[in-house]
């Protein structure tokens, strides 16, 4: 499929970027040739988007350099990146909906002071570009009326208009239908045929195989493999992406007890681009951890919101220990004994400008002893928080410090303590260790296992297959809102799970 | 150029930058006075003595600050919960209308004062309830609805003063019947021109502070304002908190109307408020939305207005300098506070 061994057009050398204690990119080297499609494959949080943002000048790298067409690219300067021939199509489009396609393409390319728009010539050039690359579009249509696939074409045209020689696409197919994906594939083929180069970011294995010439696999911020897609299989890529089955500390299996939470054929309403649930049935038993594996955006958020009390199902039943829930609100969920560890501890789990004390009582502030007849008892709240700090080995601040100053691990310890201190029967742990360092990860896992042994039923949602396989007594895979059967501990390999994650094995799979 | 947050700003930065903002405002004011053809230092001196240079000036400043404390508190309470109430002017007038209606109804002491105040608070609260329900139920932007209600209510006042509430003895002027003597708020100290409204405003500031720091509602309001998503996830009833905030905010703004009518003017007219509802936004922002800081902030703003009035009589510099000074003070202060927490980085 390649157009021969082209010249090198882009080289990243030793790119490193840290966010606090998290190393998002760790000495990444990358090279791109003329007329080549390179896939950047990796799990969420592997560092793909960070790397592309550094390339495009949105972030500054802590170390490393970028060379485009043999010339060094000044860091942190998107205008220089554009001028050097880089074009980026973001996952979330950056279009002005009230303007036409042509106006969107011209936006930002014209001098500020100028009477009238040179629309005639521009329309002609745009049509020619669209023709050349198979990007059928009406230049005078308002962007607000276009479908998602059409909007993506406008984004690509914007880059081509600015004479991009290297096109970067961040998860280009995440929002496309299969037909639109086919059209995009054809367009990208034409581009490389004309000597352009393409980098696309993805965590979908079949796309990488179908589109790319070469594939670079990132894991935990590092390049772990570079393979030619010719001859590679999905299973190969899945294993590379999630890592070999490394020797992990063995975890004693849980002792299953009574079902504490059951879902029967539950469906939810669609929200945004993430998949809603479609006929999901599962049982969480006392004394076990149930792992939920899957690529992000396949229904994890809907399941998590449902159990957290944020949304109600549109069909099906949920039972909490043989009784339907008393209501669909977060407060009802907390009252029913559900401990909720949210996916985003910064935005959902805590109020950054609140003190540790104020955050510690966020779910229980309205009850005694923290609140009596409308008055807060801050002494009781402070005592509770002091107890958590001691019991959960929370470091970095006292009860009166702002939580925003804590590290992610300590923040998570506060959330853990806040919910575990009330001895919950059911624990929803959504990405409980994402972004944490090794010590904090071990601590959080230890606490979850201790809660399991005390008889709690735990649902563990994670994109890290190692974590799922180590901790879970049963594993479900979620894909496009459908749930796989429960696979007992030890019956599946990462490659097996990877195939289910890619959508194979479901009854209605294509 | 971009902004980089500073985790723990040093004390020098936290005090130095606001001081710099005050200095910049003073320099800007001097420049304005020079443009107007007056001696800059003399002009600023005249503003200062006009605001606080005599007992009369000081009392005038306190009187002017009273409605600003109420509207400033109303805004501070609402903005804390991220409820953008731009309609304090309308709520003030709604409170003033009810004050006149109850005050002229023949009710006697000791009921007339609490009745007027409660009616005013109710009117202001109800006026903000509509926009808030539209916001929480249908997602209608409350900035637009509260702002536009200002004009609606002002036109309603205009109609009332030309029609049903017109003072028969008012020689045709568009003003309401005056409150009877016993319905007026007495002066705090006999002989000094300062009425009880000022004391009520101070009490209100302390009460709001206690609500915010000591009550369950205050905790909820702060959580909703700082992170509505986390508040909702934790089970705080965000909609109900918004409604309670609205009742509090609208009621406080209406107290400004009550205090101006019953304490100062004695009747309702179209010039009751020279924009106290809007100036309350400046007061609240300068106070960083802290209820106790609203008091000095209102005194500062009132002082500039009163001082500029007196200065313009002596130095023939237009009183508009007061508006420009306030605008400059706010902009410099917002900039200074932003730069306290962020530093500008090249590249």
Describe this structure in words.
The complex is a heterodimer of chains A (510) and B (347). With 510 residues, chain A is of the alpha/beta class. Chain A is built from 17 helices and 22 strands. Chain A has 3 domains: 9-93 and 164-242, 3-Layer(aba) Sandwich (Rossmann fold); 257-337 and 424-510, Rossmann fold; 345-423, no CATH class. In chain A, strands 13, 15, 18, 19, 20, 21 and 22 form a 7-stranded mixed β-sheet that branches. Chain A has a 6-stranded mixed β-sheet with strand order 6-7-8-3-9-10, with helices on both faces. In chain A, a hairpin with a 2-residue loop joins strand 4 (63-68) and strand 5. In chain A, helix 8 packs across helix 17 and helix 14 (408-420) runs parallel beside helix 15 (438-453). Chain A starts with 7 loop residues before the first strand and ends in a 9-residue tail after the last helix. The mean pLDDT of chain A is 86. With 347 residues, chain B is mainly alpha-helical. Chain B has a domain at 67-290. In chain B, 71% of the residues lie in helices and 2% in strands. Chain B has 13 helices and 2 strands, in the order βαααααααααααααβ. In chain B, strands 1-2 form a two-stranded antiparallel ribbon. In chain B, helix 5 packs antiparallel against helix 10. The longest helix of chain B has 28 residues, at 238-265. The relative contact order of chain B is 0.21. The A-B interface holds A 60, 75-77, 308-310, 329-331, 333-334, 340, 342, 347-354, 358, 362-363, 365-366, 371, 374-376, 378, 405 and B 7-8, 214-220, 222-223, 226-227, 229-237, 347.
Task: Give me the CATH fold name of the largest domain in chain A.
Answer: Rossmann fold
Count of extended strands of chain A: 22
Determine Rg of chain B (CA atoms, Å): 21 Å
Number of strands of chain B: 2
The overall pLDDT average of chain A reads 86
- Helix/strand-derived category of chain A reads alpha/beta
Instruction: Report the end-to-end length of chain B measured between terminal Cα atoms.
Output: 5 Å
Let me know the average pLDDT of chain B. Answer: 90
Strand content of chain A: 15-25%
The coarse overall form of chain A would be globular
